[in-house]
Amino acid sequence: MSTGSDLLASFSNLEYIVFAKLLLLRIRDYFPTSSLWLARVLLVQQKLLDGLSSILFEKLKEVVTETLGHLGDLKKVKMYWMGTDESVLSDIVSMVHLESGIIDFRYGHVDSSKLHFELAEKASRLSLSVSGAMGFRTVHQVDPKAQLCLLAGNSSSKSEISEVNSSVVRKNQSHDHQVHEASDVLLTPRFLEHENEGSGSLNPVQQALVLAQCLLIEKNTPHDEMQRWDMAPYIEAIDSQSLLLFTIKCFCDLLRIRWEKTRGRTKERALLMMDKLVQGVYEPEPKVVERICYCFGVDLPTIPSLRKEYADLLVSCGLIGEAVKIYENLELWDNVIFCYRLLEKKAASVELINTRLLERPNDPRLWCSLGDVTNNDSCYEKALEVSENKSVRAKRSLARSAYNRGEYEKSKLLWESAMGLNSLYRDGWFALGAAALKARDLEKALDAFTRAVQIDPDNGEAWNNIACLHMTKKRNKEALIAFKEALKFKRESWQMWENYSQVAVDSGNFSLALEATQKVLSLTNNKRYDVKLLDDIMLEIEGKNNDHVDSVVNGVGELGLEISRETEQLTDMIGKILQQIAKSGGSGEIWGLFARWHKLKGDLLMCSEALLKHVRSYQGSELWKDEERFKKFARASLELCKVYMEIGSINGGRKEFSAAEMHLKSTIKQAASRFSETEEFMELEVFLEKLQAVLQANSHQFTLSNNKEKSEPQCGVDDPTAPFVLILDKSICCVPALSKKKCSQLENCGFHTIRKLLSHFPRTYADLQNAQITINDGPYLIFIGKVISSRGIKASSGDIVCVSGKVRSMRTKDHYEIREYSLDLIRDDDDDDESACAEGRPYPIYPSEGGLNPKLLGDTITSVLDTLPPDIDPIPKNILQMFGLTSLRDAYIGIHWPTNFSEADLARKRIIFDEFFYLQLGRLYQLLEGLGTRIEKDGLLDKSLWKTEDNNHGIQDLNEEDDNCENDDGDQGSESIASWQANLLFEPMQFEAMDAIVHRGIYEAAKVVYEEMLPYVHDHLQCHGNRATISLTGHSLGGSLSLLVNLMLLIRGQVHLSSLLPVVTFGAPWVMCGGDRLLQNLGLPRNHLRGITMHRDIVPRAFSCNYPTRVAHFLKVVNGNFRNHPCLNNQNLLYAPMGEFLILQPDAKLSPSHDLLPQGSGLYVLRSQASDPNVANKLTRVAQSIFLNTPHPLEILTDRCAYGSEGAILRDHDVDTYLISIRKVISQELKRVRRMRRQQRRQFWWHMVVVNGTHVKLLLNSGREWWRTVVATQNMHLVVVVLVPFARLWIIKACNWIRFRLCM
Questions:
Q1: Which residues make Cβ contacts (< 8 Å) with residue 687, sequence separation at least 6?
Q2: Residues paired with 131 in a beta bridge
Q3: Is 778 within 8 Å of 1220 (Cβ atoms)?
Q4: Peptide linkage before 233 cis (omega within 30 of 0)
Q5: I want to staple 452 with a disulfide (CB 3.0 to 4.6 A). Which of 387, 429, 818, 1097 is the partner?
């Protein structure tokens, strides 16, 4: 207690420590080696304590200095032991430095410890180096791999180990067979012949020095798996020695145990070795005289410490009961309480402590332990009372309690008192600094944090607090140094980097500030930035740039060039930062800084674009109500108009001047009523007058230019020379012979332009040749005919209609029906035109659009196609020839009025090419937004888009795959771009700030659906109250949206968990990574999502199949979000399956059976029967992966027959296929249930047969047994089926018996 620390555990014979200290202090002045033995006694005393003692440290520092003065040099040692062999004297010097290094290491002085170890190596003539050699690490390893090995150079001429043969443990006897068999990993690697010369034979001092290197590695390297592997060659080198002393062998085994307990393959062996090590301490052999040899040359713990470490290992292995016994024996009550808490026996821990207090009421440790369990400060106060105010632990606990209550001044005083008793407590100084900081005692806080980093230089949080305190005192130089130290250990803290950038600016080190800002952006995904800091740096750059211009004018030499290079470097750095922020949607101030940067670079055009975004960022309804906002808007507008005027002066055009004049007039007009008195408003008026004067002076030049523009011919619909953009974007009213009424009908349905009309592609085509083929059960057919009689359909008698759907055979021979069909009107009864239905010509069937008459739509499209000029294609002819594509006009004609199906397929190929081309073009523009000047952007686009001689294979393959694709759902043409966009934006992003990754496109779409659905959800909940339930389901992407909306309703607190029913999806792709973990965190069962997947459906496999390595690398290069995508990095897939996985297999007539599933239709669940949940989950994931890659989506896409309306892709993903298959499975299950019930009924009646009344007893016995069987199998629903006929028969028998008795 007097040393400021409690005992580590229960020790015996402590009086010998006191006697040894008294004896050594008395003879200290007479024997030079007594200081060495006194240092050893003090070190042993320190090992008995549970914390570092500052009192013992001061004594040790004095004694070690004295010892080194007597025995730290070979010359001085020779004076004491004359005539002794020099190798023995060298070992003495080496041991002195080795023990000094161990003492420094225990107190955290790593640099001093390393210096002593180096001096010890030099004295013992030992040189160490780590190399590599080929060898085997495991028992079953076939091929040798590179292994680390230690090379020890030993120039010592004599080894002292032979003189203590009785204390030597031979290597081949050090580990028994059981230890070797505990793991397939070898204790020491087996090297190839002549690959490893080994470390040779080392004497005990050298062996101890080798093991001491492990202590340095433990302190100087990060605490990870690699740290233990760095220690491995040193441990294995000693383990491979032929002769070892007992203490050195024990310390080597202890280091191996600490290493191997962290690995799964060797943890069992570590536990076994630890058990044998503890048992070996209590064995009678070897004797104490033999054990004590060189025991101070290794950092071996005391026996209670070793047993405590053994108990900690037992707890980590789950053997808590055995650990509790050891803790109780050592009287480690805190550890006992921890074990009881793990066992959820808090009451037992309180009872145990109270029992011990009855025996030892004056033990402060017990009172502190009781306070930890009950959170009662009175226990800590009682501990102080019984310890006469010497219990450091009680003071620390009271200080923490006061801090948590907000009593910071009291906490500060208690921490000061505790640290006064023991100043080496690592966490104490930091806690004192935190309490002083809260109490506004900044000087005390700075002193405490400084003491914290002196004891623990790796405390990054303490360095950060020191830097912040220096910031408050405006000591920028000291703060910058402290931040540099803090960032060595807290490099992932964006707050620390942000403070560092501010200090760097205040210190004038702008390059460091920009580097720190770049780091903040990368850590916060471009969401955190300091506009004021960037503005200060930009002002500094602008000032230096002006100084450089002056230096060039005045002819300044090398100094000016150096300033110019520094300014250019800062300009480039801040430009990259501004571009990075602007890409992620920066604020208005950022666009203003970006404009200033472009102006510095001399790019006025990009400067004007950035200023325009800056101006627009202030616009809104609040602009004309907030004066401060208007002032910012006015200043930005003035800068924009100045740049416009400068561009116009350079180009000599009127466009920029007119834009500036229009903007100024509009702003002045709207602001005149509220802000006319402001200075910014007056500046706008002055600049408008100046601008108008310039326009008036240059009016003659502008007039000539305008007349030249007006003299150009105007483009019309019938003008074949008109550009294709003007023709296709003309209004629908320009179509010849189209009345105003019909034009109004088309515009009301969304057909405003000719492009929109021509992009309304047919859903399918009707062909009269279908009537000539044989009709079978199952295929999808199209029929054209005349309606004879109608009832309940949108057609009259005599109309020509097209009927399409799945054909089913009826019971009557050669009779077929179409239960679910689509009906399209081709020709009315009053229409005499029958040319459209000519045999062999595909007739286009358009999707319905707002009740529009199909004939009007077809006639209008025909009129447009007749007047469409041939040269309207924006794609060059050489590109079309390269890909084998038709012109745009021929594509429109071929898809609307094809002469045969081949022409329609060729036209569709061209339309698909255009869709993907414009998607790629739009994506490229997004990537280039904000990068470079407009000229550079256009040049880069030209290189990216038209350099097809080397890079045309990707587009060509894409069109070849879609060559035969037909979509019967009316989802072709440009109408499908939105759905394609949702699929193409498949990059990962965080879902609802949760620990899960989601498909970006689906997530964005789900947000829209969520907002539209939320009012209806609220109405439903309000109407039904607690009885309300919500169930979401969907097919394909609709299923994915249903899942995300369901989770969003729960996470955002809109719907209670009890109101959400499980989500059932059909053919939906998985769009989350970490979905199962998210369900678990939300308290949802795994079957909350039930994903039903068709056995060969390609859509659910799209994101969850194995992606080749080259594809994964490409995704990471194209989009940085994929680089840290866990599913792509760990599982080679984009999004992992989640929830309950159900596989639907249809009838073989509808689709071939899957190779991994039984024949016939059915609904299967992928689920493991393993008892261990972790093993079951792993097996389930493996099964899911095998199924989703059999067949792989690429195998399906390479099959040309898979495309089209009859292809496998549409067949296995069609919602009708899912519906039919589900109905088939339900029908089969109902039939099976009925069949089982009939069989049970027959078996029951068979046992109830009674012949001549002689088997009544047998009948009753069998009935009892049957009843037991029913109850045991929980088939109680069969009781009604069985008991009703049983009772009826029994009543009839009874009535017949009574009637028979009456007749007698």
A1: 638, 641, 642, 664
A2: 149
A3: no
A4: no
A5: 429
The Cα–Cα gap between 440 and 582 comes to: 40
Confirm if 915 and 974 have CB atoms less than 8 A apart. Answer: yes
Of 1302, 1150, 1102, nearest in space to 777 by CA: 1150
* Predicted TM-score of the model (pTM): 0.46
- The conformation of residue 524, written as its DSSP 8-state character, comes to T
With tokens 């549409």, the residue in question is 1210
Both structure tokens of 42: 């003090």
Q: What is the pLDDT of residue 981?
A: 44
What pLDDT score was predicted for residue 571? 84
* pLDDT tens digits, one per residue of 425-441: 878 888 888 888 888 88
Structure confidence at residue 559 (pLDDT): 44
Distance in angstroms (rounded) separating the CA atoms of residues 512 and 483 = 12
How crowded is residue 1002: how many other Cβ atoms within 10 Å of its Cβ? 24
Separation CA 228–CA 821 (nearest Å) = 71
Helix 426-438, helix 408-421: angle, nearest 10: 150
Which backbone phi and psi does 510 adopt, to 5 degrees? Answer: -75, -30
pLDDT at 522 over 70: yes
DSSP state of 337: H
Residue 507 corresponds to which tokens in the numbers above? Answer: 């210190």
1018, pLDDT greater than 50: yes
What contacts 829, CB < 8 A, 6 or more positions away? 796, 797, 798, 799
DSSP letters spanning 917-966: HHHHHHHHHHHHTTSS-HHHHHHHHHHHHH--SSS-HHHHHHHHHTTT--
pLDDT bracket for residue 1137 (50, 70, 90): very high
Confidence of residue 646 (pLDDT cuts 50, 70, 90): confident
Strand-pair partners of 1072: 998
Residue 473 confidence (pLDDT) above 60: yes
pLDDT in tens, 314-350: 888 888 888 888 888 888 888 888 888 788 787 887 8
Omega within 30 of 0 (cis) for the link into 1015: no
CB atoms within 10 A of CB 1300: 9
Question: Within a 10 A sphere around the Cβ of 628, how many other Cβ atoms?
Answer: 7
861-889 pLDDT, tens digit per residue, is 888 887 777 778 888 888 888 778 888 88
Please report the DSSP string for 582-609 in residue order.
HHT---HHHHHHHHHHHHHHT-HHHHHH
Q: Please count the CA atoms within 13 angstroms of the CA of 611 that sit on its side-chain side.
A: 24
Q: What pLDDT sits at residue 717?
A: 44
Give residue 1267's pLDDT band: very low, low, confident or very high (50, 70, 90): very low
Residue 1177 exposure: Cα atoms within 13 Å on the Cβ side:
8
Top-confidence residue, 205 or 1246? 205
**Cross-strand partners of 126:** 154
- Percent of the chain with pLDDT strictly greater than 70: 79
Which of 746, 755, 763 has its CA nearest to residue 843? 763
What's the rounded Cα separation, in Å, for the pair 213 and 703?
Answer: 88
The 3-state secondary structure of 233-264, one letter per residue: HHHHHHHCCCEEEHHHHHHHHHHHHHHHCCCC
Q: Tell me the pLDDT of the chain averaged across its residues.
A: 77
Judged on CB neighbours under 10 Å (0-12, 13-18, 19+), 537 is buried
Q: Is the dihedral of CA 296, 298, 301, 303 positive or negative?
A: negative
CB-count exposure of residue 749 (10 Å: 0-12, 13-18, 19+): middle
Residue from 107, 41, 116, 102 nearest 72 by CA: 116
Structure tokens at 1246: 């068979």
**In the prediction, which pLDDT does 851 show?**
67
Supply the DSSP symbol for 985.
Answer: -
